[in-house]
Amino acid sequence: MSERMAATTPPVVFIRLPEVIRRTGMGKTTVYKRVRDGAFPAPVQLGEGMVAWIEAEVEAWQANIIAEREELSLPKAA
Fold first, then answer.
1. What is the CATH number of the domain that holds 20?
2. Do 41 and 61 meet the contact criterion of CB atoms below 8 Å apart?
3. For residues 77 and 57, what is the distance between their CA atoms, to the nearest angstrom?
4. pTM attached to this predicted model
5. 23 is a domain residue
6. Are 52 and 44 in contact (CB under 8 A)?
7. pLDDT, tens digit, for every residue of 16-60?
8. Is the CB of residue 12 less than 8 Å from the CB of residue 52?
9. What is the pLDDT of residue 22?
10. Residue 58 to residue 54: CA distance in whole angstroms
């Protein structure tokens, strides 16, 4: 990878399940149910029996949830 590319590409940050739970307020069972249902980002395999989520994907999910709430709260045009 070139130095220029490294300078412009933000690093990928992995967050483990306890941090996902802390940031989302969901429990472990809910996180995995939503992953299974396609309603939450899937974790990536880091090693045998070790997974983590990509921080940017969790943040994008949070932003999407907020945007959906704001859309629902807008007054409907008559």
1. 1.10.238
2. yes
3. 33
4. 0.80
5. yes
6. yes
7. 999 999 999 999 999 999 999 999 999 999 999 999 999 999 999
8. no
9. 98
10. 7
